[in-house]
Prior knowledge:
Two copies of one chain form a homodimer.
Chain A: H1 5-12, E1 16-20, H2 29-33, E2 40-44, H3 48-56, E3 60-62, E4 74-77, H4 84-93, E5 98-101, H5 112-127, E6 131-133, E7 139-141, E8 161-165, H6 168-180, E9 185-190, H7 199-208, E10 214-219, H8 225-236, E11 241-245, H9 250-259, H10 267-276, E12 280-282, H11 285-297, E13 306-309, H12 313-325, H13 335-342, H14 366-375, E14 381-386, H15 393-409, E15 413-418, H16 423-438, E16 443-444, H17 447-464
Parallel strand pairs in A: 1-2, 1-4, 2-3, 4-5, 5-6, 8-9, 8-10, 10-11, 11-12, 13-14, 14-15, 15-16
Antiparallel strand pairs in A: 7-9
Amino acid sequence: MKTDFSKLERAFNPQCVVVVGDSKRNNFQWLRGQGRFKGKLYSVQVNPETIKDIEALGITNYTSLRDIPEPVDLVIVTAPRSAAIQILEDCIAKEVAAAHFFTSGFAETDTEEGVGLERTIKEKAEQANFHLIGPNCMGIFNPRVGIGQNINQYNNDTGTVGFISQSGTHAQNFAYEAHVQGVDISKSVSFGNGTVLDSTNYLEYFGSDPECKIIGMYLEGVKDGRWFFQVLREVTARKPVVIWKGGRTEDGGRAISSHTGSLAVPQTIWESAVRQCGAVQVARMEELIDTLKALLFLPSIRGNRVGITGGSGGQSVAIADVFAEAGLSVPNLTQESYDQLMEFYSLIGGGYRNPVDTGNQNSREMGRILEILGRDANIDSLVLLSAGGMGGSDRLQNQIDLLADIGKKNSKAVVAVVSYYAPDQMRAARDATKSFQKSGIPTFPTMERAALALKNTLEYYQRINGADTR
Amino acid sequence: MKTDFSKLERAFNPQCVVVVGDSKRNNFQWLRGQGRFKGKLYSVQVNPETIKDIEALGITNYTSLRDIPEPVDLVIVTAPRSAAIQILEDCIAKEVAAAHFFTSGFAETDTEEGVGLERTIKEKAEQANFHLIGPNCMGIFNPRVGIGQNINQYNNDTGTVGFISQSGTHAQNFAYEAHVQGVDISKSVSFGNGTVLDSTNYLEYFGSDPECKIIGMYLEGVKDGRWFFQVLREVTARKPVVIWKGGRTEDGGRAISSHTGSLAVPQTIWESAVRQCGAVQVARMEELIDTLKALLFLPSIRGNRVGITGGSGGQSVAIADVFAEAGLSVPNLTQESYDQLMEFYSLIGGGYRNPVDTGNQNSREMGRILEILGRDANIDSLVLLSAGGMGGSDRLQNQIDLLADIGKKNSKAVVAVVSYYAPDQMRAARDATKSFQKSGIPTFPTMERAALALKNTLEYYQRINGADTR
């Protein structure tokens, strides 16, 4: 279906939302999920008992969508599939901007009844040019206006990520995990079977939305490949797009067919097409979050040469292996840098070739070491293994200020690794992450995750800067 | 040097320990680190001010090692390198069983002075057949007798892992991180430059020690490859050995030379020799811990076919991809299993081919689903995506009992994945991990880590069962 931007703009920034068919059985998850919505919220339900409960929540109920006394921007359908066609017809008659069908039991069941029902709603929606989101999905999350996929989602207006997900679980987990990592959503949609509106529609919309600075996607398949890749190419010319494709393996492919009914795509063909469009490809939720974070925070990276400090000897060996195995390089520094280091660096208990170990008395000279690495002509990016908040918050803030300054002065990418193994450390690491990122330095919880995010970011910039023409 | 088992037995299970040269500057880390030692602890120090501080700690000080009024099993040397030779001579004269030299500044500095000093202590020790641990290392951790590498290490007598590490940081981090994961040490040694006693000596000793059920190693190089591989072959015939080699890459290789002065070994030659000896190879601290855990907990695994349940549709796609990409398989179940599942499984909102989704009403039938997967002839191992403690502890314990029972009844490997993204979740996940592991089910914090541990364990059993003759 051709994207009607004005309809999606109304649906993603609604002034009036109606939930159809919410019930006590699921604890009114959809009505309660819109508890922080700043516009008008109505319910449609016919069961008298259920209506009482809904009214007790302070929500006005109507027995038909057609009776709502104002224009409706978004309908959330949570009724059983047997009511799906009737509700769709009501939505069309009411001229609703779009409806999100949480309702499942369609083609993904691989049953005659489910497949037939999905065909019918598709035909009816397309005939009316009706913008149907789903079915079998968790719909829209917009923290600025307060509509969401569950009651625990956050509320703010600072997010810059547009997230498009074929999976409801991944949509919700992404919102949560990325938020923990300091990466917030502007608008997100879980679109399930993608029967009427497919990922391409949302990609077009987020691509033209100035509130989405960057786009992340979890996809299991696309219905119209030619159209998808054409839009993807257009959008990547304006903002970075990072795609996690589920069903990369044969076993994963079988799993997607019973999840959203998507057909498996040969992975090599998919990868090469996505690469040609200039999008970044990832294989995990964590890699998706980390790569979006790195792209949001880091400047254009010139090359793969990384300067590393902050660890002991053993950690320096480990991180050199990890970065080299990720396709980056941990090269020798310039002779000038070595001459400067030798003025104060203690060789007893420390290696300084790169990584520059500081798991000893040399840690007192961290400032000078960072300055030297920042200026070094052999180094494109700087990685700090940080003790996070465990070394005291004053010391941490000094380190952060210094690092932010060095990054800016030398226009190099600067990242920090803040690890944790226990809950208390995790709390300290999260606080440290906030402090680092407030100063523009992205942090990652492991060296592996930092290496992968940096490599993906480098490849992105090589591609858009024309250094890589694969 | 030929291993003298009686000397190492005394050093690793000492009755009398002496710390030489501890100082206020490092906050008496070595004297305080032995605070829970159950035997006799003495200090040797000549500085009158420092002696006062040591006596204030309640520790008897002598001005010479030779004056200690009883046989000494272990000396910990923390004096500057300038005193190293004198202390070594005292150790030899006193007939100490072994000395751990924390002292650094030897060959790893790549300076004439350091290299010369290391050559001298090597010659002197070898001439006297003296068992010198290090230098440039963190020495011994034995939680049963209460000697350790820092004051925060745990104290217990249940550990079964022998850990041998060329890095002091990795030795301490392993002890801590593995403990958090429920994998405890019997004896551990950080041996640094390995000048006199090399990793092979400790491997021989732990290999013959019935308290070490399994051995983990972090190595940067070995001095005598022929001897190492001969001992490795002998030990792997008795117990599993898991090796993390640092310096796998050129950049990592440069880092090891300034860390412990080890020479880089061509990685392909190393890998093939280790594989031929029947040891398991890993590339990360996390993979080392996870693989040791899986080998400690799991029975012999027959094949690579994994049955998975516990997740939603999106998670099922993700875990199928992850396990397939790790070299395992997530196959179709038998028709018999599908027939049994169809008796109760709701297709609306759930896929049951494998993974069997339960992110919906089907979760109420988890018991029956696990029984069916446990019996299925197409499945060698069972993986549960668990909500951990977040779903209530009664429900969790039911799940655990059921799972443990199914594993035993069908002699299949059973593992659980318990994820977390926030500190509170991490706490709940740790508690859940303890409960699972008390019932013999190893848990892993991510699906990726579970897949890698399971694959490494499968390869180990294939090798010792002769299915894999590479």
